[in-house]
Amino acid sequence: MRTVVRTFEPPLAHPAEFLGSVWRDFLRSRPLALEIAKRDIRNQYRQSLLGPVGAVLLPLALTALALGFHRSGILNVQSGSVPYALFVLVGVVLWTTFIEILNAPVYGLLAELRLLARTTAPPEAIILGKLGPVVVNILLKIVLVAAALLWYRIPITPAAVLAVLGLLGLAILGSAIGLLIAPLNLLYRDLSWIFGTITTLWFFFSPVYFPAPATGAIGAIMNLNPVTPLLGDTRSLLLTGMAITPVQSGLTIAGACLLLIASWFYARIVLSIAMEQVNE
């Protein structure tokens, strides 16, 4: 790939040209995205002590922690007809998948900063390529959940297929939020640390270890959390064949789609400013 000298002007100085260039970059990003994905997947396991086990180790550890709290009485959660261990495991798998997708552009653009600054590589190629290892991790987690369903002899209903929509909604929401943060992370390097702290707190206000309470301050906060309906309904569809808040989940997915489009263009605008500062 040839090295170029970039010149900068306000991206929205010519809106039609800007939108066209963003779309063209997206279309031409596929070959490079595949190369980045293959490289990162190879490196992920070549330099890993645990190999594929690492992808499921965190969900298993978080599930074990919740079971410890539950058995000691610290967490008094009623999970209905579903075993609490399975309830937590599916919730943790969905949560960690959401966070991995969110982090992919945040850390991916920073890792490939030199490529962005010195070549004409489209940012979309890096963002899509960094999702490669995430997809592999998702597949490994699906195998883990399938094994748990077999272990607990949970029947899969036809409605469980709709859980794929909830997982897709979490992926869209995570990508949209990640794109909002990623270009700013190039300007302010401590932003990823700050947001990492926020996501840690976010975990405890998401229905991973327990369903969202119907009343109280915690319940009100959790019900404002966009992850709550998606995670809760995806888990419920998979384990019971029923959605808890289908309308809220549908509206959240629609809003996430709009946010993803807006954050995509926003990221390109902020990224051009970040590249200008990097090259100064």
Q: Can you tell me about this structure?
A:
By secondary structure, the protein is mainly α. 74% of the residues lie in helices and 0% in strands. The chain is built from 12 helices and no strands. Helix 8 packs antiparallel against helix 11 (227-240). The chain starts with 14 loop residues before the first helix and ends with a helix. The model has no long low-confidence stretch (mean pLDDT 88).
Q: Quick recap of the structure?
A:
By secondary structure, this protein is an all-alpha fold. 74% of the residues lie in helices and 0% in strands.
Task: List the keywords.
280 residues, globular, mainly alpha, single chain, 12 helices
Helices, strands, pairings?
Layout: H1 15-27, H2 30-46, H3 53-71, H4 84-111, H5 113-118, H6 123-129, H7 131-152, H8 163-187, H9 191-204, H10 216-224, H11 227-240, H12 246-279
Helix pairs in contact: 2-6, 2-7, 3-4, 3-7, 4-6, 4-7, 4-8, 4-11, 8-11, 8-12
